[in-house]
Amino acid sequence: MKDDTSRLVYSTDRGRIKQTSAELPPSSDGIIRIRRETKGRKGSGVTTVSGFMLNLAELKILAKQLKQRCSTGGTVKQGIIEIQGDHRDLIKKELEQRGYDVKLSGG
């Protein structure tokens, strides 16, 4: 029953097929951007670090090291490291020692 004009409309045998961020690193210009954000967090600030050319496993390891350096909590969401509190200067100094090109971004 193969027909050149037929096409698969819906199939339940495969499920959703999606490439995860662990397989491919996000595209970046090579500059690490550090910013402080409070939007959507009920006034509490976090420091976000983005622009890494690392896969998810490497990013989680780096996030853990930065959290230990800042003595605070944090997470990795969609390729962005979030560190609780305002630690821009400390994170910038740490990443520059590791050889990254770092810019402070935002207010």
Instruction: Give the structural class.
Output: alpha+beta
Number of distinct helices: 2
Gap between N and C termini: 62 Å
Number of strands: 5
Major β-sheet profile: 5 strands, mixed
The neighbouring-strand order within the major sheet is 3-4-2-1-5
**Which class of the domain at 31-104 in CATH terms?**
Alpha Beta
Query: What CATH architecture of the domain at 31-104 would you give?
Result: 2-Layer Sandwich
Uncertain segments are 18-24
Gyration radius, rounded: 19 Å
Task: Describe this entry's structure for a reader.
The chain is of the alpha+beta class and 107 residues long. The protein has a domain at 31-104: 2-Layer Sandwich (Translation Initiation Factor Eif1). Helices cover 23% and strands 23% of the residues. It is built from two helices and five strands; from the N terminus they run E-E-H-E-E-H-E. It has helices at residues 56-70, 88-97, and strands at 31-37, 46-50, 74-77, 80-84, 101-104. It has a five-stranded mixed sheet with strand order 3-4-2-1-5, with helices on one face. Strand 1 and strand 2 form a beta hairpin. The relative contact order is 0.20. Mean pLDDT is 81; it is low at 18-24.
